[in-house]
């Protein structure tokens, strides 16, 4: 019998003998710059520093790239104030929090993800274990939870008092044909809150990796899986090129293979910024043009050379999407572009 780890190793060793073929077929990748570590997240000032600080602390000391992005992703996952990721994320239509997360390592194209996992505060850490401790990529629902328990994670209630109240308000105002009666002074705006976080990192050696983690679309149908745990949709990383992550309407990222598309655009010479904009345009085109689009996606990118990009589909005038980065030049918030003004 072939030992699985040896088999996987021998496959990657084979890959090492084919670089000329890969690059001639797939276009010219960006040159990497060594000793230029960068960590990026898809948030601005408010969350950026808090999220990136632990990751940057590891990267600047030349620590593990995967530890760096995991620790940064864990910040929002563990913080109940963020109602779109991890503990304190908004629940599905039945009031149950179901989380999605993925991780991808650029140097070996290894990846792992969990979807619809319940009761575990840090799904990105479970996704990393799927990547490192199984021969699979994707675990879902009860199987993902059992796997987390096997590795010592604890099942906890992920619904906070705040998110329970928001959910009850939504549920009571959902229909006048059911028997729920909201309090007299209560009405719900009907707005579906969205959110997710992408954390992308580049280390001193020029290796690149990323995480996407979310509680997904609020009030989703139980069992719905968004783009975040789907490799190529909510996250894609290629060490030769860079990394792309997405937030926003997951169904659109899935049917455009948006993050994979972004990486391929960079492989073919687009800058990270141009690649993000091009992915947004592709999604708008697929939907039949700007007048047909009533949702948003935000794409973030980190090139192999440390260059970054960010674009979204639609925003209010002047409310450009933001990313935060931490590098040797310090902490920085960068404004991206958007296609359609609302
Ligand atoms: N992309 C996430 C999903 O569709 C949600 C979001 O980022 O708003 O599950």
- Largest sheet, spatial ordering of strands: 4-3-2-6-5-1-11-12
Mean pLDDT: 91
Number of domains: 1
Sketch the topology as an H/E string, one letter per element: HHEHHEEHEHHEEEEHHHEEEEE
CATH-wise, what's the superfamily?
A: (Glycosyl)asparaginase
Please describe what this structure looks like:
- The strands form two sheets. The protein has an eight-stranded mixed sheet. Strands 7-8-9-10-13 form a five-stranded mixed sheet.
- It contains ten helices and 13 strands.
- The protein is globular.
- By secondary structure, it is α+β, with helices and mostly antiparallel strands.
- The chain has a single domain (38-173, 189-341), classed as Glutamine Phosphoribosylpyrophosphate, subunit 1, domain 1.
- Helix content is 34%, strand content 23%.
- The longest helix has 16 residues, at 45-60.
- Bound molecules: aspartic acid.
- Aspartic acid is lined by residues 194-196, 214, 216-217, 226-228, 247-250.
What keywords describe this structure?
alpha+beta; 342 residues; 5-stranded mixed beta sheet; 8-stranded mixed beta sheet; single chain; Glutamine Phosphoribosylpyrophosphate, subunit 1, domain 1
Task: Please sum up the structure shown.
By secondary structure, the chain is an alpha+beta fold.
Topology (SSEs and partners):
Elements: H1 4-16, H2 19-26, E1 38-41, H3 45-60, H4 65-78, E2 99-105, E3 110-117, H5 123-133, E4 138-140, H6 141-150, H7 161-172, E5 197-202, E6 208-214, E7 235-238, E8 242-248, H8 250-255, H9 258-267, H10 272-286, E9 297-303, E10 308-315, E11 322-327, E12 330-335, E13 337-341
Parallel strand pairs: 3-4, 10-13
Antiparallel strand pairs: 1-5, 1-11, 2-3, 2-6, 5-6, 7-8, 8-9, 9-10, 11-12
Helix pairs in contact: 3-4, 4-5, 9-10
Bound molecules: aspartic acid.
